[in-house]
Design goal:
The complex is a heterodimer. By secondary structure, chain A is mostly helical. Chain A has helices at residues 3-37, 54-60, 63-94, 102-114, 117-127, 134-141, 156-164, 169-180, 184-192, 197-208, 210-225, 229-234, 246-256, 260-288; strands at 40-41, 49-50. Chain A is 71% helix and 1% strand. Chain A has a two-stranded antiparallel sheet. Chain B has two domains: 7-55, no CATH class; 66-277, MetI-like fold, CATH 1.10.3720.10. The chains are: A mainly alpha, B mainly alpha.
Chain lengths: 295, 278
């Protein structure tokens, strides 16, 4: 190694040293430690005791684990496509050329997405309140007796999925940016060829935003697999564990029951699911994600 | 979308967008309306949007049960700590990953970006134990110190993207004039990067202000609660006093609203940028 390149190596490592320290202390070490803990019985007061696959076999007969896992998958299956349709739908409307007042509409739709979950959840609790809430008040105008929403085992997950749609602002902006990037010439050429609006959407708009859709699907799936704040704040996992997510279940084992070993094992199961889903997305991406040129 | 649109279509689109905007703001109108209701009006069915006479004393009642200013101050301390940490450390790391040529750089950068995939639940227990052994439980340190260690992969990524638009010739010229890397970083790169630093500050502000899991794990004493724990506690204890609960929620919502009014332009442009490149 030349003198210059070894000097640069030291220099480079020096500049990234804050991250390097953080990476070793708060990523590498915790990942290894939690992997080890997942094979132990470990409450905070005792030393970890190695029990092999004990935690994992315990999961097989742990009803709440299965319940929280299926709940989590229901959240993901509900939240990811619904968020895509709403965010993309709104951004398509806002992208209409003749539209005036875009900044106002965009701001109104974006604002709720940065309201903290701990404030928003209080608002949602009232908004969907069976007797005092806005939603059931509106429904009563049409003679509909609204459900109990968050207090109903059947409705609690749909309610949380609906409530989360107030947070689509970020995704909407990303889709808006992708739509703006589509070259106008493509539409002009299509117009000359007499293409209908639907054809233009299907043959131009949709293919050209597939990379953004792909980005949304991956990040939104990873994020929603870990759903915690909204169900924790709204219901704490209830009623009767109907809204319990894997994230909440892990948190409860770690800090309420101090089963740190079991919590770690559950966390690794969650991580495995995230990895598998991400790999699946990438494996199928070649079939439908379209890249225009190289850049 | 292109092509002509008739008057009817246009009206339909405006109508639709007004409805959507109304839906997105309605929970907050409902919150504010309820916060002004008298206790007796809470029992009316169907409930009204706004009370006949606004009862602003619900706010005073809420504050008497809920030390809003204390929680607010705690949240400010945590957020400012995070801002300082991110703004100091993220540009340093980004510089090391973009303007210094060293072996293994691109590989480590890839490693950094891949860590985003690791769920917080995996590292949660050992990280908690580290802070416990340091004696930092029930202090703000676990919520602040990590931000000094790199400032988050996405922030580093954004700054690195920005740095790559600054021509290397500028750096070479400074080197010929005898500047060392540290001077270049301090006197050229950081001053030129103000726009992206402003953007990551906005992201950091939102992330830290809205952080719920962190305080939930680390803060136990009520006098150290940030709003993230204070507001849910109010709901648990006094949630049936809907007018006061919504007064507390309105107070909790106000800082975000004020922040949004000042920052929305930069925020909206910034998210678009980070989204496309991300």
């Amino acid at each position: 190694m030349s003198k210059k390149s070894s000097r640069n190596l030291v220099l480079g490592l020096l500049f990234i040293s804050p991250w390097l320290i953080g990476f070793v202390v708060f990523t590498i070490y915790p990942v290894i430690a939690s992997f080890y803990y997942s094979f132990t019985e470990f409450s905070i007061t005792t030393k970890p005791k190695f029990i092999g696959f004990g935690n994992f076999s315990r999961m097989l007969s742990d009803e709440l684990f299965w319940k929280s896992l299926t709940n989590t998958l229901v959240y993901v299956v509900g939240l990811v496509p619904l968020g895509l349709i709403i965010a993309l739908g709104i951004s398509l409307l806002l992208n209409l050329r003749y539209l005036k007042g875009v900044p106002f509409f965009r701001a109104a739709i974006y604002l709720p997405s940065i309201v903290p979950a701990f404030a928003f959840s209080a608002v949602v609790t009232l908004f969907f309140h069976p007797y005092l809430g806005f939603v059931n008040t509106i429904l009563s105008w049409f003679g509909i007796n609204g459900p109990l929403w968050l207090s109903s085992e059947a409705w609690v997950k749909p309610t949380i999925i609906i409530a989360a749609q107030w947070g689509v602002g970020g995704a909407m902006l990303i889709f808006s940016a992708a739509l703006k990037d589509i070259p106008v010439e493509l539409y002009e050429a299509a117009l000359i060829d007499g293409a209908s609006k639907f054809t233009m959407f299907r043959k131009i708009t949709l293919p050209l935003i597939t990379p953004t859709i792909f980005y949304y699907l991956v990040t939104s799936t990873i994020g929603n697999m870990q759903i915690f704040d909204l169900p924790m704040l709204l219901t704490g996992g209830g009623p009767a564990n109907a809204s319990l997510s894997l994230g909440i279940y892990i948190y409860k084992h770690a800090f309420t029951y101090t089963n740190m070993g079991y919590a770690s094992a559950l966390a690794w199961i969650l991580f495995s699911f995230i990895l598998i889903l991400t790999l699946l997305y990438f494996a199928f991406s070649k079939k439908w994600v379209f890249y225009l040129g190289n850049e | 979308m292109y092509g002509k649109a008739g008057l009817f279509t246009k009206l339909l689109v405006y109508f639709l967008l007004c409805i959507i905007a109304l839906i997105y703001l309605m929970p907050f109108f409902w919150m504010f309306g309820t916060s002004l209701k008298a206790d007796t009006e809470l029992l009316e069915f169907p409930p009204k949007f706004f009370p006949a006479k606004p009862h602003f004393n619900n706010f005073a009642k809420a504050i008497s049960k809920f030390p809003f200013w204390r929680y607010f101050l705690n949240t400010v301390i945590i957020t400012v700590g995070n801002l300082i940490g991110v703004v100091i450390s993220a540009p340093l790391v980004a510089y090391g990953f973009s303007k210094v040529n060293w072996k293994g750089r691109d590989f480590l950068f890839f490693v950094m970006l891949s860590t985003v995939m690791i769920p917080g639940a995996v590292t949660m227990v050992p990280t908690f134990l580290i802070f416990k052994n340091l004696g930092w439980l029930d202090t703000f340190l676990p919520l602040i110190v990590p931000s000094f260690l790199g400032g988050g992969a996405m922030n580093v990524f954004l700054i690195k993207q920005f740095f790559s638009t600054i021509p290397n010739e500028m750096i070479e010229a400074a080197k010929i004039d005898g500047a060392n890397e540290w001077t270049i970083f301090r006197k050229i790169m950081v001053p030129l990067s103000k726009p992206v630093l402003a953007l990551i500050s906005l992201f950091t502000f939102i992330g830290s202000w809205n952080n719920y899991t962190g305080p939930l794990i680390y803060i136990t004493s009520e006098e150290k609660y940030p709003l993230a724990l204070g507001m849910p506690m109010f709901m648990n204890r006094y949630g049936t006093y809907w007018n006061q609960a919504m007064a507390a929620a309105t107070l909790t919502f106000l800082p975000t609203l004020i922040f949004f009014l000042f920052a929305q332009k930069y925020l909206i442009e910034g998210i678009k940028l980070s989204g496309i490149k991300g």
